[in-house]
Structure formats: structure tokens, C-alpha cells
Amino acid sequence: MKVVITRPAEKGKDFSKLLEKNGFETIILPTLELVFKKAQINLEKYSWIVFTSPRGVEGFFRNLDLEDAKKVLTKKIGAIGTETAKEFERTFGKSVDVIPKQYTAENLLEALKKQIQNGEKVLVPTTPSTRDVLKEGLNADLIFVYSSEEPANIPEKLTELEKLVISENIQDKKVILTFTSGLTAKNFFKHCSPEFLEILKEQYIVSIGPITKKNVDSFGFDSLMPEKNYTVEAMVPVIKDLNI
């Protein structure tokens, strides 16, 4: 069974390997490109640094010199989920202080509110496309350390994908589409013709979590998602259940 991966290319390859180990044929069709940005970072006034993606960790680290990297070890750290926490721990050799039970910005906000003391300032290294949940809920400062750009070849790739999906359907096979962020979904569906959108409604669609599902479903779908942990690893059992 074929699975379409819309993650940025580098992370898409990791997801592809995971799915191929489980017997799936993958098609990597990135609808995002990650571009790391230079930023001036003053860590002195912050007690907390909060990350909402592994790429936020990487982009943040790219902007630090050795002295600043050591300062990070004195800060309290929040992470939206296990993948982000692992990336931070690999990079800085330090465990994070807060991870919510469910991996959404809203749940991270509630977990942080229980830990952050009055007067403690929060820094969130992120992307301009981030939602304002932490900024508004914690009066946090955002610093943009990467951006998510739209690849120019999406329309061309979707034309190829439409032909493939039709070919699979002729053979009574369905295709599984996967989305790991709202922006991957928006960049994908806005380039689909009305005819292709109707064809896609007969396929399977799996979203990584509730925020992504909301974006996917706004295009007229009812996508599936993991029950608890909103990670690509948790998407695999959902996808395996469709392989019938």
C-alpha cells in the first residue's frame, strides 16, 4: 500500500524508513522547506526556554556561541512533545523540565502555567507561522529561528500524484495521505483541483494530531489521528490498521 509523506524532505526520509520497515511503499512529496534564520539572542532575562518543534531546537542552537550554549544549561526547559525533548537532550545533554501529557500547544501552556513563577520570563524559539497560544498565554517572547517555505514544484508533483492515485484506484487500491502539521496540509490542498479533491475523499488520510486534523478536515475530509501521543511513531499503528 502506498503512503504519501508531506513532511519536509529530511524529516520525510526518516518517516519513510519507519513506514518501509512496516511494509509500506512511500512517496515523499514535501509541501514545506525549512530555512534556518539568523537571530540575535539575549538569554540573560529569561528563566524559561520553550520549544514547540525539533527544528526550533536546531535553529536555536545554530544561533548560539559556546558561552550562550552553556547558559542554556542554567535555564528551565519546556518541550511540546517527546521528539522535541529528544532533540533538545541530544543537542544540549540536558533533560527538559516540562512535557505535557498530550502534545499540543494548549496542553503545553497548561503544564507550564503550573511551573512558571511570577516574574519569570519565557523565550520561545520558533517560526513565523507558529500559533500565538504561548505568546498570549504566557506573555512569552518569540524569536524566529527558522521559517517554513512552500516549494515551487508542488503543483507539478500533485499532477503526478493524481495520475498515480487514479491508477491505484483502478486496481481497487487506496492511497494513504499523511500530514504532520497544518501548514503541510494547507500547502497541499490549496493546489488541488476540485476534481482531485473529490478523488482524495475516497482515499485514507492520517493527521498527526488534533490541530493538524482540524486543518485537514477544513478541506472537507474526516482524517484519522492517533488517540494519544501525537508523533509520527504513533501514526504508524493508525496507518497499519488501514493496510487491509
TrEMBL record:
- Domain Tetrapyrrole biosynthesis uroporphyrinogen III synthase, residue spans: 14-236
Q: Does the keyword Acetylation apply?
A: no
- The record's EC number reads 4.2.1.75
Q: In which pathway does it act?
A: Porphyrin-containing compound metabolism; protoporphyrin-IX biosynthesis; coproporphyrinogen-III from 5-aminolevulinate: step 3/4
Catalytic activity field: hydroxymethylbilane = uroporphyrinogen III + H2O
Keywords assigned: Lyase, Porphyrin biosynthesis
Which GO BP annotation is one of this protein's?
protoporphyrinogen IX biosynthetic process
Gene3D superfamilies membership:
3.40.50.10090
InterPro entries assigned to the protein according to its UniProt record, in alphabetical order: 4pyrrol_syn_uPrphyn_synt_sf, 4pyrrol_synth_uPrphyn_synth, UROS/Hem4
Q: Name one Pfam family in it.
A: HEM4
Q: Which domain of life is it from?
A: Archaea
Q: Top-level EC class, please?
A: lyase
Spell out the molecular function terms from Gene Ontology.
uroporphyrinogen-III synthase activity
Instruction: Establish whether keyword Lyase is in the entry.
Output: yes
> What biological function has been recorded for the protein in this entry?
Catalyzes cyclization of the linear tetrapyrrole, hydroxymethylbilane, to the macrocyclic uroporphyrinogen III.
Q: Which family does it belong to?
A: Belongs to the uroporphyrinogen-III synthase family.
State the protein's name: Uroporphyrinogen-III synthase
